[in-house]
Write a structure and sequence with these properties.
six-stranded antiparallel beta barrel, alpha+beta, Rossmann fold, two-stranded antiparallel ribbon, 16 strands, single chain, 2 domains, Tumour Suppressor Smad4
Amino acid sequence: MAFLQRLHMENSFQIPADRWMVIVNPNAGVKKGAKEWPKILDIIRGEGIDHTFELTKHKGHAIHLTRKAIEEGYRSIAVVGGDGSLNEVLNGIFLQETCPVSEITMGMIPVGTGNDWCRMFNVPFDFEGAVKLLKKRKTFIQDIGKVTHHKKNETQERYFMNVAGMGYDALVAKKTNLFKEKGHGGPLTYFWFIFASLFQYTFLDAVIEVDGVSVFKGEIFSMNVGICKYNGGGMKQLPFAIADDGLLDVTIIKKAPKWMVIRYTPKLYDGTLVDLPIVETFQGKSIRIRSTSKIYLETDGESMGHTPLTFEIIPSALRVVTGELATR
């Protein structure tokens, strides 16, 4: 152990603090990552950015690559991928034990289908703009969420930096992910599954507590808990979210006729959904959700386990590279 610690310290002296480890997901955006990576690499080199890169080979690989990079001395980690890739790198950062998370800087070059975290932080969707942002290194320290969930009779934890969804939101995310894993889909895939899955879905009972106080008991259609405003490829389901206020934002869509989902879909995108009587919003530092049935979970678009669920906020936890207008 002493030898490994000494080796890690020696490596950290060899790697400049501003050298980026770029973790690339070739499968992001339905293989867009593989297609566009040579072009992105040319731009990175053209900007003279000091870097090394690694390509992921399977689901979960980015977690391992991130931990390994930090152990080797990297303190700047950039992601070429989508929200799911970003989530894996985030969990790699928080699961490593080499250095404090406060020493890490995270950046993003979006090639995914949703790219919702980038919407919050004004990271350009064009590669040139995103790379120039990395070079500029304007940073913001955002809150991070952690959720405890259950899967295969085990209690598991997952960190997230954008939005976690439950109920119908998790079902649509799961169907979208399975579709993309088969090499299909595109930017409108999530939108399609909103309608395609609607009439096979059943409402779920839930008991919800915010900061130890019961705020809801009844049947729900969908629910979101998050740090940021957007999910599902531009849906503004948490319009009041501020990424550094030390609070989790909650939006609950209660049981309602399913035709209302179709009628009010535009309100999902402009944030006015929260004005409807079937919607309730809350803020708090901890959220607990229980149910007599299983309410499934997705975090940053990645399908996870199910209830019981406990969310907590980790304030001012991670330094990220952002655009000019970070959160307000």
